[in-house]
Amino acid sequence: MTIIRDIFKRNRERNDPTIPSKEAKDVPEGLMCKCPECKTIVLTKEMAKLQKVCPKCDHHCKMTAHERVDSLMDEGSFESIDDHLKSSNPLGFPGYTEKVEADSEKTGLNEAVLTGKGTINGQAVVAAIMDSHFRMGSMGSVVGEKITRAVEKATAEKLPFIIFTASGGARMQEGVLSLMQMAKTSVALKRHSNEGLLFISILTHPTTGGVSASFASVGDINIAEPKALIGFAGRRVIEQTVREKLPEDFQTAEFLLAHGQLDAVVHRHKMRDTLSTLIKLHTKGAVARG
Amino acid sequence: MAKKVQKTMPFEEPLIQLRKKIGELREYTENAEVDLSAEISSLESRLEKLETDIYEDMKPWDRVQVARHPNRPTTLDYIPLLFEDFIELHGDRLYGDDEAIVGGIAMFNGQPVTVIGHQRGKDTKENVRRNFGMPHPEGYRKSLRLMKQAEKFNRPIICLIDTKGAYPGKAAEERGQSEAIARNLVEMAGLEVPVISIVIGEGGSGGALALGVGNHILMLENSTFSVISPEGAASILWKDAALAQTAAEAMKITAPDLLEMGIIERIIPEIRGGAHHDPVKQAEFLSSAISQSLDELNPMSGESLIDQRYDKFKGIGVFTE
């Protein structure tokens, strides 16, 4: 017994000199970041310049809503709306209010979606950008209400509506009220569509459940970021139901594209230009017709 | 012929015990020369009181069990009791015919209507064919086709909701389960005819809501409508599916809960102990509820029906400003 312990002890001692001293390890918090896919370490600043796309493996890391706005909108053009809405705890779930408050603190958002108006290459749009750092981007009453109001604003001002989705689905802590947000956002989108206005849905990692099964899937144009996980049911649930091994690329953006569920998979570095062109192509009265 | 055995539910256990005891006493009276009629009638009045106590105060989990009862009437049980001249229409014209959703045209009190509903099976064989009432995308696309057809011919649409949820399978994902549900939500929002959605059993998540964007949503007294099954909620929230009973209460999924939250218009009363005790009588309750809704919705124009639906769903949600 002691011998065994000695072995470990010796190892520890032997390893000691190779462990960097505390000072050497003390790089300022957040200076470097690691790609979750290939584990490459990149300067955070560098990563931000690359719009959080890994320079080595091209992995599209998760973005916060504000990072997305910065990468997309003309500088200083974005004005957020409805930042004052607050989730309450309709079912009285223990700890729910605290969790929402903690995430609000962490992300600087009032809820899992940031909405507002801005310009892309000078073209005005109303945008909703979901943030998966806030309660997994799940949709409760406030997320549903903010998106609905944003769509209503787009309808009223006759502007295109753009949404970046990132969500695990409906928020369980708000029960069936969350489910109904799928219908609420849909009735608003129908009205927007009836006005002949453009709706582009950009599905980012991950877009699943109730969000995937509502506004995310019904854009006039549906675009996804490379490798984004998109699906209705969770992979584990499906594996348990069908009892078969699912393909490696199951529920990825590329899988959906191959199965006719998306218009395009667009690299993040090309997103701004793609959106800008699409909006330009939908400009009203560009050509007189009829 | 063997009498069809009614599956009983745990909360009914005291009633069963008491009924058994009364039966035993009756038998004893007949065979032996003892008069126990006083005891029997006292037990019978106790039974009646117990029935009232149990059935008038059903807990959410009790209702979940009634909603899932294997003999609970399904869409195809109600259709001949509610309508005349039903003709079933099949297929989505894109891929196939999903038997987990049935639909067609029928006459209701002299008015042609389109009826669409989830359909689970009554036995294993039928359940395999109907996929336990869990639709694939083609089921939702069929229902949308029939709704658009109803709109063309200015027929009201009656949707009967009864599903554990949309099917979570590989083929369903490949053919766009998300899109099929989402499309239904958006297109139902714009229908220019009255839409009445009635939850007759389980209303499971998006797969149920895809038939649920109605001008009126009604629920049978013992039906449920939820974002996730109590078992699913328990396993996610507390990592233990056995806590489903607790989850059924916490998630607020019963008809009275939804009425209180302002999501549904009305509760349709149910036969004491559950619709399966008397489907014919239950259909009468359903019929008068449909009549009432149609009386309110029939006079409305296409535009005002769309506006009413808009206002209804816009108003759902709890938050502070």
Q: What does it look like?
A:
The complex is a heterodimer of chains A (290) and B (321). Helices cover 39% and strands 18% of the residues of chain A. Chain A is built from 11 helices and 11 strands. Chain A has helices at 2-15, 22-25, 44-49, 65-72, 96-107, 141-156, 175-194, 209-212, 235-242, 253-258, 268-281, and strands at 32-34, 41-43, 79-81, 86-87, 113-120, 123-130, 161-167, 199-208, 221-224, 230-231, 264-265. The termini of chain A are far apart. The model of chain A has no long low-confidence stretch (mean pLDDT 91). In chain B, 48% of the residues lie in helices and 16% in strands. Chain B is an alpha/beta fold and 321 residues long. In chain B, helix 1 packs antiparallel against helix 2. The model of chain B has no long low-confidence stretch (mean pLDDT 93). Chain B has 14 helices and 9 strands. At the A-B interface, strand 4, helix 6, helix 7, helix 8 and strand 10 of A face helix 7, helix 8, helix 9, helix 10 and helix 14 of B. Strand 4 (86-87) of chain A pairs antiparallel with strand 9 (319-320) of chain B, so a sheet runs across the interface.
Number of distinct helices of chain A: 11
- Name the beta content range of chain B: 15-25%
- How much of the polypeptide of chain A forms β-strand, as a percent range? 15-25%
Cα-atom radius of gyration of chain A: 22 Å
**Structural class, from helix and strand content of chain B?**
alpha/beta
Report the mean per-residue pLDDT of chain B as an integer.
Answer: 93
Structural class of chain A: alpha/beta
Describe the secondary structure blueprint for this structure.
The complex is a heterodimer of chains A (290) and B (321).
Chain A: H1 2-15, H2 22-25, E1 32-34, E2 41-43, H3 44-49, H4 65-72, E3 79-81, E4 86-87, H5 96-107, E5 113-120, E6 123-130, H6 141-156, E7 161-167, H7 175-194, E8 199-208, H8 209-212, E9 221-224, E10 230-231, H9 235-242, H10 253-258, E11 264-265, H11 268-281
Parallel strand pairs in A: 6-7, 7-8, 8-9, 8-10, 9-11
Antiparallel strand pairs in A: 1-2, 3-5, 5-6
Helix pairs in contact in A: 6-7
Chain B: H1 13-31, H2 37-56, H3 60-67, H4 75-82, E1 84-88, E2 101-108, E3 111-118, H5 124-129, H6 137-152, E4 157-163, H7 170-174, H8 177-189, E5 195-204, H9 205-209, E6 216-220, E7 224-226, H10 230-237, H11 244-250, H12 255-260, E8 266-268, H13 279-297, H14 302-314, E9 319-320
Parallel strand pairs in B: 3-4, 4-5, 5-6, 5-7, 6-8
Antiparallel strand pairs in B: 1-2, 2-3
Helix pairs in contact in B: 1-2, 4-13, 6-8, 10-11
